[in-house]
Design goal:
Layout (H helix, E strand, L loop, with lengths): L1 E5 L1 H8 L7 E5 L3 H6 L3 E2 L6 E3 L6 E4 L1 E5 L7 E5 L5 H5 L10 E2 L5 E2 L4 H6 L2 E2 L11 H13 L5 E2 L1 H13 L7 H12 L5 H9 L3 H4 L7 H12 L4 H9 L4 H11 L3 H18 L6 H11 L5 H17 L6 H14 L4 H5 L4 H20 L2
Parallel strand pairs: 2-5, 10-11
Antiparallel strand pairs: 1-2, 1-8, 3-4, 4-5, 6-7, 8-9
Length: 368
Amino acid sequence: MHIYKVGGAVRDRLLGRPVSDIDWLVVGASVEEMLAKGYRPVGADFPVFLHPKTGEEYALARTERKSGRGYGGFTFHASPDVTLEEDLIRRDLTINAMAEDEAGQVHDPYQGARDLDQRLLRHVSPAFAEDPLRVLRVARFAARYAPLGFRVADETLELMRQISASGELQALTAERSWKEIERALMEAQPQVFFQVLHACAALRELLPELDSAPQALAALEQAAAHHKPLHVRWACLLHQLPPASIKTVNQRLKAPRECQELALLTGECLVQADQALQLPAMSLLALLQKFDVYRRPQRFEDFLAACEMVALGNCKAGYPQGEYLRGAAAAARAVDVNPLVQAGLTGQALGEALKAQRLKALEAYRHC
């Protein structure tokens, strides 16, 4: 029985990057032996166990073969006879197919260290093409390691094109696709993820609405550079699409509600925000009301952040509309409802009076 660190922990240590999660691989052990040592089974599809003291996951070495369509269509075989090399060859990229033993020695049967040095994302074996999810994973790794100069190897990109042409990407569930997209959006250079998907013709399969929207990537790049949260990045990515298309993308990928809301509002209101300095008070009020700036001020702030990133993506030096709209929102929120209530106004009458007071405040703000 031999235990190895595998995958990302070895890769990132060799790159000098922080190692957060460690994947452990057990070679030469049976299920019975693991149970006898106190490991607790948790794997549904193949034997994975929790360490009796640390609670970390330990997986038995296994092989796999394609048995159906999609990323889940595989049959796994785990036994003490499966070698380290046989387990590593089923992995996606050579840089993820290295192992480190308990003495600290790196086992690298597929030249992952060489590809790290050459900054290449290269597949381990032709079996790469059997799993459509790997198209998204490779694109995500490209986004993560782009700051270090990594690129997808030509032969791997060709396999990714073959997967795209095969129709296998359609077998990915919305939940699995979104998980990869979400993780990619939060990388340092998320635009690279979509550039790689475009290069291998996967974008037209997964997000055809974005296949010809290069300016959206400039806004997304700015959002990442300014460390914006996920929902702002998603809104930046979709900002060029018509609202109907934004709804379609949101529903198809089952994006989180916060992402859906901000993306749709940005698509609907970006032009108004860009014209803010010329808007009459009534239009300003309507924009503020749409965002419910009185009860949900942060949503409006997130919208303005998305607008600012779009402007930067368009090579504009600044976005004065942002501060102007923040001031308008503050002026509208400063209107005190209490005098109207004390005057005995209720219901629709109160609403109309409050609207009139806010319009008056916005008129004053516009001319100050």
